[in-house]
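writing this on my phone so excuse typos. first protein, seq and then structure
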Amino acid sequence: FPMEVELDVLESPPHWVVSRAVGGTLRQMDGRYDLKADAARGGVMLTYTGLIEPAFDLPPLVGTAALRHMAEEQFRAMVAEIERRAGRR
């Protein structure tokens, strides 16, 4: 199923970002990104918590796994883009 989402985003650099769906094909989508310096690794720890509820029915178990996989793929792409941009500095 194709999904579209329009988000209302509030940022509090450099600590957190929260988002909430305000349009699109999802019934509900709320998320929070927390960023914390990781001195031991010399980087940043990114933690995400969220709730995604589609506006359409999903098959039990398989639908949940598909949403989880989609979210993991999006995070991998986001991290790859962050690392790519950081490499340009």
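second protein below, same order as before
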Amino acid sequence: MMPKVSVLFRTRDEARTIGMVLEKVLSQSVTDREIIVVDLESTDGTLDIARRYPVQCYQIPMQWHNYGFPLNY
């Protein structure tokens, strides 16, 4: 069964804000959801923070980065 809502975050060195943003999304009333973080080789611990939450985390190399690739991945 597909979730009602999918939320995708493309990140790169967002450790300062990623926790707050994920908490806000997770506090919403819609519980039938998936949250996906696609990270572009952050060096500040962004993925470490994101992995503390019930979200799917992926990391892609910078050489694969373009506008559409993280969305399609």
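The mean pLDDT is 89. thats all i got for now
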